Amino acid sequence: RGDTLRTYTLAPLLAATLLAGCSSTTLIDAPSAPSNAPPSDSAGQKAFVFESGTVPIGDFDPFTLAPEDYFDPCNDITEDEFRRAGFTGEIKRSTDGEIESFYGASACTFIDRETLSFIGMANVDANREVAEDQDVIQEGFSSELLPEIYAYHQGHFSSMPNTCVAQIDTEQGGIAVSYYTHDESVSVDDHCRIAAESIESLYLLGNS
């Protein structure tokens, strides 16, 4: 994999997708998560619970985790699950050839054609430690429901103003969500919040 991992191509990847793959889809309205955290699994570990299986939240080693062991949110989460989590509109997946992707990442988007706003999602193979080493984590961001979520904005990977990527690490790789809008009145903090709420809504599917 080398020293440069594909995580830091996520924001421009999804921004390019927005410009090249816009269609008559609808933006996600990510539901606001309740402040009281839901219970963990029987072992006391937080986990996403999907029809495809349980994905424990936790650290992973991007240099030893095999490619086939990465969780692919765009394909391992069913369309019905996306809908119940608040995602609306037709999903566009890179694995179906409907949008472009780079560096082997499986990406998907939900796009609002009229406002050129989008939520994008991808599996990524860089973890929090890599983000900390590159000093790109967004200061002041936090999720009450899932403190494990972190966000990044600065750096060459985030080439569009205010674009924010929220990520949570699991034992099966990172799940990253990006939010972008052309409305410059929407702050970086709000971009990060909206992206994080999409992750929270997926967690609440199996933990409410």
Task: Give your account of this protein's structure.
The chain has helices spanning about 10-20, 75, 80-85, 130-135, 190-205, and strands at about 45-50, 55, 90-95, 105-110, 115-125, 150, 165-170, 175-180. The chain has about 210 residues and is α+β, with helices and mostly antiparallel strands. Strand 1 and strand 2 form a beta hairpin. It is globular, with a radius of gyration of 16 Å. Residues about 1-40 have low confidence and may be disordered.
Task: Supply database-style keywords.
208 residues; alpha+beta; 6-stranded antiparallel β-sheet; two-stranded antiparallel ribbon; 5 helices; globular; disordered N terminus
Biggest sheet strand line-up: 3-4-5-8-7-6
Main sheet record? 6 strands, antiparallel
Low-confidence stretches: 1-39
DSSP, total strands: 8
Q: Helical region count?
A: 5
